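Here's what a typical entry looks like (Helix-turn-helix type 11 domain-containing protein):
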Amino acid sequence: MSPKRKARMGRIIDAMGDGGVKTAGAIAEKECVSVRTIYRYMASLQATGAIRGEIGVGYMLRKARSQANGR
């Protein structure tokens, strides 16, 4: 993975840290890239389990299992 891609993925995860739902359009605008580019990034992040996405809703940061169990 290129340093540029790694940095952008880090910024996307950081931006999602507030726990809210983010749309691909909003993320694309903030990162100054196309929505299609965000779809590719999100597919990679979803594959790692870091991000959860729902069609028509948006993307959200996946909570760690220990946080979900209150530990």
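The mean pLDDT is 85.

More examples are in the samples folder.
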